[in-house]
Amino acid sequence: MQNIKAAIFDLDGTLIDSMYVWEKVDEDFLTKRNIPVTAEYADKMRSMFFETAAAYTKETYGLDESVEEIMQTWLDMAHYEYANNVRLKQGAAEYLESLRKKGILLGIATSNNPYLLKPCLEHNGLDGMFHCICYTSEVGMNKSSPDIYLYTAEKLGVKPEECVVFEDIFEGLKSASSVGMKTVAVYDSSNDTYISQIKETADKFIENYYEII
């Protein structure tokens, strides 16, 4: 890709194999409250940022817990996995290093939380790799909107058309493309339902990072 100065990466499902964690958290959280996990619920949760997802869960199921209590419960349930067991996607570390050697600026645009992200990067050897880490909670919009990608580009000091965005979800790929960013779709089995749309939307589709090193 020509004239690219920065690469912006989603975290979950794109850089790391972590979707199992959130599926487990959703299942354990709702099952403990005698609530079935529906496909509709799981689908909506994928593109929401953290606080919105907690508010949606509280409202949908009429829970007594506050939004803050729900978020903290989720974080505590997920923290151990992120800090100890979650691993990088195949070839991710090598690809990031190759980009850095070429002088490409590296950013993360995520719906996740610093409480989980930082220990995950540390135990996978990526601490200090990225020039900036941005969260959807900072812009108040989920990835159906391009705000998080534009915000990350601004933090990196580059124009949208100088960025390539790596994502695993259709909504993120679509919104990043809408503002002139190049996109690379990274395969994750959690998005099999939307694989056709993902391949049609992205400029490039990869199964793993070894394909583009």
TL;DR?
The chain has two domains: 6-18 and 89-211, Rossmann fold (3-Layer(aba) Sandwich); 19-84.
**CATH architecture title of the largest domain:** 3-Layer(aba) Sandwich
- Category by helix and strand content: alpha/beta
Q: Beta-sheet strand percentage?
A: 5-15%
Query: What integer is the average pLDDT?
Result: 95
Number of strands: 8
Q: Termini, distance in Å?
A: 13 Å
Q: Can you tell me the CATH superfamily of the largest domain?
A: HAD superfamily/HAD-like
Instruction: Report strand order across the widest sheet.
Output: 5-4-1-6-7-8
According to CATH, the fold-level topology of the largest domain is: Rossmann fold
Would you identify the regions where 5 or more consecutive residues have pLDDT less than 50? none
Proportion in helices: 40-55%
Radius of gyration: 17 Å
What's the main sheet like?
6 strands, parallel
CATH class of the largest domain: Alpha Beta
Count of discrete structural domains: 2
Compressed to H and E, one letter per element, the order equals EEHHHHEHEHEHHEHEHE
Query: How would you describe the shape?
Result: globular
